[in-house]
Design brief:
By secondary structure, the protein is mainly β. Helices cover about 5% and strands about 30% of the residues.
């Protein structure tokens, strides 16, 4: 799980998406673009989704600066 000022990185395996929870508790989908954090979209986790924390080294693969 990536943490920086209460920011966490997850994977939603059901929908095959990267998801970030920011320091305000908001969830964001990270699209597969060159700038995923800048291109993020709001995300509302459903009861069926299974957000799984991921190791910190994935942030480099996603181009995240935190």
């Amino acid at each position: 799980m990536v943490k920086h000022e209460n920011v966490c990185l997850y994977v939603d395996r059901m929908n095959r998406q990267w998801v970030v929870r920011d320091s305000h508790g908001n969830f964001w989908i990270l699209p597969q673009t060159e700038s995923p954090w800048l291109d993020r979209q709001p995300y509302e986790p459903s009861e069926e989704c299974e957000l799984e924390p991921v190791p910190g080294h994935y942030k480099l693969m996603l181009g995240l600066s935190f």
